[in-house]
Amino acid sequence: MGINWSGKRRWIALLLLIAGFVVMFTTPPIIPVIQLPGEVYPAGWHLFGFLGPLPSITNTLAGSVIVWLLLMLLMLYVHRKRPQTGGETPPGGFYNFFEMLFEGLYNFVAGIAGSNIGKIFPVFMTIFLIVLLSNWQSLFPGVDSVGFLEPHLDRETGEPTEGYEVSHWFGNVYSLNSKCPWVSPAATELLTENERAARQLQGCYTGNLSPAPVAEEHVEEPEAVVEGEATIGEEGAEAAAGAEGEATVEGEEHAEEGVVAEGEEHAEEEGAHHHTPGDPSVPWVVLPYVRPPSTDLNMTLGMALVAVVFTQIIGFQALGVGYLGKFFNFRTLFTSPLGGIDVAVGLLELIGEIARILSFAFRLLGNVFAGSILLFVMSFLLPFLPWPFFILEFFVGAIQAIVFALLTAIFMNLATVGHHHEEHDEHDDAAHAEAHG
Amino acid sequence: MEEAIIIAGKAIGAGLAMIGALGGGIGIGLAVGGAVQAMGRNPDFTPTIQTNMILGVAFAEAVAIYALVVSLIILFVLQ
User: Fold this and answer.
1) pLDDT tens-digit profile of A377-419?
2) How many domains is chain B built from?
3) Which domain holds residue B62?
4) Distance from CA of B11 to the nearest CA of A (A)
5) Integer Cα distance of A256 and A82 in angstroms
6) Gap between the Cα atoms of A192 and A405, Å rounded
């Protein structure tokens, strides 16, 4: 089933290319505010706009929920499609692809795990599918770029930090205005006349020649504008800052500072989400609805713990209490001249086991988080041509999923091997484990 | 001014941390080079060699990734 390049699809591709060019020039891309921990949803958020209020979660948790749902759908699909009796014709399409993948991986792991395949393969496949779906989430449009509009304020002081102004599209749809990075009133004075004029030309609310204009959402407070001396521009500015009417603006030269003070007080008193979207007194950033779960240390550390705990479990199952002899090896301490070295090696293996957790967690986190930043930055630098990097990320995601699952399988298999039976193999394996730690 | 110095320090620190990627790069190059030579001499063992190569590459890459994580933490977590 190759791609049919004749006919309509060629025109669709051409139209998409032209649309890409147009979008590139009308709304230039934004370099987002990058944060390593998962962003927390605003308190009392609503699912699909009406289900709620719900407790705050992080957007990486939302990503994991999507992974779980996808895995459940996959499970149901495969279960329903699976031929129950031998005689049926095999179902086609995605089922066949999945069966091929499954079988290929099964044979692959069987070559490593040998007779332990029955215990190791379920863990391998589960980890593989979860990590794969988590990694690939950043390839989907909207992930990492569509989300809540949040005023970007310092968590401790409530001061506005960096961000963008907002442009209103229609209804409830807003976007960050990439041509207008937010400028604080104090920083406005540092701009040159030309820069301010350029910003005014772009239609920016902040950092231009005139003080902030009227923001429509705030005009329904008529008391805000009744103070006698205020000129029209100041009235607008005052209203935009959400002043409640008792603010008295003395003269023109103080107007801006007055507005700033009001805005800050407002933010501190009422909490961040009381700013109406588009309020130019604070900078805005997008808090994505969904972020790939493997960009959060909580998820990768959890997976690493699962992998290492399963390794210990299968070790105890295979060797009983003797499994501990791998780490606390006092058997040869008084019988052999090199007994002390055996004790040290055992302790080193214990440390290696713990270091494995960190190694698993940081390998996945580093790869996927760096990949998502790469996609951000490349979409920013080459807005028209980021797709080679999407292909790169596609492969990186798959390879990291394979590596994570394969290492789990190998370590689980290693744990089932006794310490004193196969001296030579064990040395090779120990070299592996140490290279890893 | 102080902010500028802090940002400069962060950038320099993150850049220095990424020197660690050097070792990972050399290691991966050696591993893949050796694996390709082995596969060229002995194509029948390609699957085995490939598996071990991917494992070795993953271990070598882990070191570079630690450096990357350190520099990411310097840039985006450190206040």
Assistant:
1) 888 877 777 788 899 899 889 989 998 998 899 889 888 887 5
2) 1
3) 2-76
4) 15
5) 69
6) 57
